[in-house]
Amino acid sequence: MLARFSGRLSLVALVALTLGATASTATAQSCTLEYQRADNMWAAFGRPDGALGRETVAVPIGTTKVLATDWKYEKKRNDGTNYYGSHLRVVANTGTAPVQVLIVSAALNLSTMLNNVMTGSKELSWNSGLVTIAPGTSRLFKSDLGEVRCPKA
Question: Does the pTM exceed 0.70?
Fold first, then answer.
């Protein structure tokens, strides 16, 4: 009886070890981005006003994740299938590989330009374009997050 239980126990341990190794390999082979959005477009530059909290998106190496940025999604949270990037304020690369983000804006954002002039900020004046974020760093924005790209090494 003890030998039978011991055999099952080692099988369970083997399965758990295999699943753990698979999960860590999957994490190592993707880019992880944590970002905070605002509930509305009038929120201050770099300050995620509202109750959305932090969102996380993991993108496998060599792929791109497109996020919905339409105004009708401004108060929705990611649900694991649908990802929203409207009213981006703070973005942080919490992974180990550089992440590229496509910052989009329908038009020149006058309030961001004024904020940049007043604070001396070197953020994107036109508030759109492809930005690379190094591991362990964060950036402030007042725009929408259109895509998250995880380039091949």
Answer: no
